[in-house]
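Worked example 3 (structure in, sequence out).
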């Protein structure tokens, strides 16, 4: 019996999917990359973006049509707004929050689906001695085992620290991994649905985080990203018994010293960013020189309406500290154009901020209201064509500023983490600052597998990428570096 999973949205959803994989494979299911071959089909949804929700409806419509010809179980989890959940209950067999993942085997059993693992148990019992000649069944039954309805586990609660985070992920890559350090959000930005889909901030125990990172590094992973909605508020919900984010970074940096790995984190909130965090990055070679610092808007009044709780002047102070403490670091950001009520002069201030802060990359989104977020009650009063124009103008500024920074790399030799090959057969990878690099094939004809570090001489630059040639032998993954487990069952 087989399964197929589709994660939508951010890296956190991909990380959540890796734990769902573990649960399904412990039940005896095998992965398939073809939806048509699967007995269980699941989506890790994202209510934050309408396009992601539209894709969910497209998939479940097709899957429900398949049910006319064969047995099939469908489920949806992830970041789901209450309004979307109600609609999903009518379409999917199972709807559950990610915190309830440990109860998934019980949900499947209550739905009446025989799992491969269950069939194995049945076969064993058919050939076992009579009950009077063997020990009583010692398999544990959870206290208060939930009675779940087919449409979803209403009333089932599971502490994320003792439940979901204890599920060991089945990583989707042999060299790149995502490690969640917190879940939820306390910021309540008016445009964002995350507090309503994931709840309030909960910090994962630091010992678990450090151990997972150390295990990954020793297994040969080259790129690790610490994940959270607001990573630099890590530990604030557990002040009496947990360390803060800067100390967590120091602990990770000390445990990974000497290993060939780049460790990132995303995303910090400008209000909580401190010099101590930046100094921790500067103090440890394994903590990568790359900062993702969302600005969202360059106008203070728009930031107030967004409930971002900082002003451009405060954001500027953080960027100044980044340039001083981490002069080699690349700077990424997020920006929303066409937010409710955004005037042309306010947009011009965002353009000015883009020019001032000279980002290496900006993820620019046109505003769309999401039910449940506070701004959904306000008029979406910026025409779509105007949003597109503003996005286009910001992109042009980004290409100019990032292009100038990339041009300064020409002639330098920089380490690159090779990720694979592009469609033209060139090696592709990223610098420590996560700038994409296209690399000519080495002259010696030796293959450079994904997960290798390769010194590259930068020969030319484009606005958002670099080009180069190998300079020296690559640092290849070795047998000792092999990951504990990988899977190719997740489609994007």
């Amino acid at each position: 019996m087989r399964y197929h999973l589709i994660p939508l949205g951010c890296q956190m959803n991909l990380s959540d999917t890796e734990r769902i994989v573990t649960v399904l494979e412990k039940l005896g299911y095998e992965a398939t990359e073809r939806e048509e071959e699967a007995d269980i089909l699941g989506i890790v949804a994202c209510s934050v973006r309408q396009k992601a929700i539209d894709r969910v409806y497209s998939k479940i419509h097709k899957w429900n049509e398949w049910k006319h010809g064969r047995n099939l179980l469908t489920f949806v989890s992830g970041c789901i707004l209450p309004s979307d959940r109600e609609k999903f209950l009518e379409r999917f067999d199972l709807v559950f929050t990610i915190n309830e993942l440990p109860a998934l085997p019980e949900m499947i059993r209550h739905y009446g689906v025989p799992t491969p693992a269950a069939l194995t148990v049945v076969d064993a019992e058919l050939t076992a001695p009579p009950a009077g000649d063997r020990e009583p069944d010692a398999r544990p039954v959870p206290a208060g085992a939930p009675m779940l309805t087919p449409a979803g586990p209403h009333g089932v609660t599971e502490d994320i620290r003792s439940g979901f985070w204890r599920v060991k992920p089945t990583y989707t890559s042999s060299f790149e991994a995502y490690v969640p350090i917190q879940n939820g959000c306390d910021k309540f930005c008016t445009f964002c649905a995350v507090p309503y889909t994931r709840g309030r901030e909960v910090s994962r125990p630091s010992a678990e985080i450090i151990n997972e990172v150390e295990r990954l590094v020793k297994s040969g992973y080259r790129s690790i990203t610490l994940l959270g909605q607001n990573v630099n508020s890590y530990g604030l919900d557990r002040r009496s018994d947990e360390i803060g984010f800067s100390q967590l970074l120091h602990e990770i940096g000390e445990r990974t010293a000497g290993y060939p790995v780049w460790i990132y984190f995303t995303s910090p909130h400008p209000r909580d960013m401190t010099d101590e965090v930046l100094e921790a990055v500067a103090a440890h070679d394994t903590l990568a020189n790359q900062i993702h610092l969302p600005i969202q808007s360059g106008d203070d009044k728009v930031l107030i309406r967004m409930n971002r709780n900082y002003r451009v002047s405060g954001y500027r102070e953080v960027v100044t500290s980044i340039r001083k403490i981490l002069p080699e670091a690349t700077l990424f950001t997020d920006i929303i154009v066409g937010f409710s009520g955004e005037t042309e002069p306010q947009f011009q201030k965002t353009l000015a901020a883009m020019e001032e802060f000279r980002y290496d990359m900006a993820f620019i989104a046109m505003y769309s209201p999401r039910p449940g977020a506070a701004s959904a009650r306000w008029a979406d009063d910026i025409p779509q064509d105007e949003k597109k124009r503003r996005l286009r103008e910001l992109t042009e500024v980004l290409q100019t500023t990032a292009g100038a920074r990339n041009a300064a790399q020409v002639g330098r030799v920089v380490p690159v983490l090779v990720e694979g090959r592009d469609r033209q057969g060139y090696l592709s990878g990223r610098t420590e600052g996560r700038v994409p690099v296209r690399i000519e094939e080495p002259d010696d004809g030796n293959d450079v597998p994904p997960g290798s570090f390769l010194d590259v001489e930068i020969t030319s630059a484009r606005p958002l990428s670099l080009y180069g040639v190998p300079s020296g032998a690559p640092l290849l993954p070795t047998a000792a570096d092999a990951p504990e487990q990988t899977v190719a069952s997740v489609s994007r």
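Notes: Residues 110 and 149 are 8 Å apart (CA to CA). The chain has a mean pLDDT of 86.
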